[in-house]
Amino acid sequence: MQAVALTKQVTSEGAPLLILDRLEFSALPGESVAVVGASGSGKSTLLGLLAGLDVPSGGKVFLDGIDLFALDEDGRAALRGRLVGFVFQSFQLLPALTALENVMLPLELAGATHARDEAAAELERVGLTQRLSHYPRQLSGGEQQRVAIARAFAAKPRLLLADEPTGNLDSVTGARIIDLLFRLNEESSTTLILVTHDDQLAQRCQRRLHLENGVLVGN
Predict the structure, then answer these.
(1) Which of 24, 134, 166, 194 has the fewest CB atoms within 10 Å, counting from its CB?
(2) Rounded to an integer, what distance in angstroms lies between the CA atom of residue 142 and that of residue 125?
(3) Phi, psi (5° rounding) for residue 21?
(4) Model confidence over 74-84: pLDDT tens digits?
């Protein structure tokens, strides 16, 4: 993954507001990178751009050597589905689906022929074999985040983006989720880029990107 002169500017109250200013960095396969900085420094905006969920005002993002923003919206969605996984603070599980069905969903959308077996195997990796038929409301916060992690890794992404993955968890559960995230990251050689205010989590990463008012001040 590589970002080149990545810039995001919006209009606020009739005046231009620069959120990200010509960011330049890359991340190697299997590398873990923490994005840190104060609230409002542009961290979540950066994650949205790296995923192609938002469009930059300038610059480029290359995923697997492909210029993400040279593609149209459908092309970006297809590339994202093939190469990118997500873990969110709020879990983002579908409440009407069981744990197994939540993990199966991206596999089915990708056309996997053995989605059920692959999803069950991912849930086994995160220690939830006994929770396959449970709905999100029947799971603890830590269990829901483990389902979300299993879903993120199920499609074997090249890049995993995590936005405050321990933000809604107590410290003990959060520590377990951190251990799980990095174990799967190492096993899968997936590039991990995560936004966090958790210093313990940031220290586990191989590198930090420090954003300050939209500018990269350390990498």
Answers:
(1) 24
(2) 15
(3) -120, 95
(4) 999 999 988 99
